[in-house]
């Protein structure tokens, strides 16, 4: 029965989860060191005692305080060696905070508002046959549930709010509140989360060994200092960060164009990790886990590197055409983005562990181009997606009909699979 409850919590089929209030509990450094020491056992099994001894010392020195989300009980009893059993929901938050990032990103006292300008949900199906990465536009309006006040965790909770931009939730209630907001939006439980700042992105891209990306037209962005000619580029470190941050230099200069650019990078990353054997190599995976520990603020549930390695291994045999990168559909209204009705198709896919297929018409609205950068013109600049409608349920449908095995996304839902090599639609200074 306990296994069934945990499986149900992971998939949250057809219902919005009931999530406990997350508390910003700081884990003691001695507990962290103890857990880090234990976590190298799997590494020892495959790489020898010398590496394991180094790993124990290294992780103890890498460890950072973590954050409690409040819903980690769904993971009780889940083993942490081998591929993660069952489904996985992990929220990645990109913070624009300049604190501790050096001089290259502006004055941390004047130019930071601790906004979650990147909010991505990675879902791996229970049988690991498919995965989706959903990007939520930063200006999308959402309702925020009651959350624990990070400034006073033991005091009165923060009241629920309605119609606020999703990128303000991190400053309102911290990582647990962002998690609760997305859980409420899509109807699945999210027991894993991590927040990364600018230099953390650079460090993680170095850890994976760089990512090849295709650029159809030159990218010129004086705001991020990124200048890339058309062609193929191997991106790592600061240049990878600049590519993921650029907005003015791609698409129509909007956040929606930036999301498409990020999907070009992430799909290439998925192809690279599968093709070079990283997802089957515990030593390489340990290096990436170490980089995550050093560069991210993680939920308690991700503190053990074995857990991160297990999640990565869950994707090693997933077909690339079953790994989808999806932009949550919205339409423009009064300077903000409002969730479109077609988002219901995404929620259905998440809650039922279904792979998705894109409507060919959606690719015409994408800011990324398919094909060889030497033969492809720049992608057409499209207007922001218009409000879409999810297909209405047929009340006369046969209740005994077999359950669908694929969720077909409406035409206003853009994105791509990891099997598709697409090119970033660059934008020069003359076009800005």
From TrEMBL:
Cell envelope-related transcriptional attenuator domain: residues covered: 116-274
Annotated source species: Agromyces fucosus
Gene3D superfamilies hit by this protein: LCP protein
Record-stated family: Belongs to the LytR/CpsA/Psr (LCP) family.
Residue ranges of the TM segments: 33-57
Protein name: LytR family transcriptional regulator
Keyword Ubl conjugation: no
Signal peptide from the UniProt entry: none
Keywords for the protein's UniProt record, in alphabetical order: Membrane, Transmembrane, Transmembrane helix
Residue ranges with Low complexity bias: 381-408
Keyword Transmembrane attributed: yes
Span list, region Disordered: 381-432
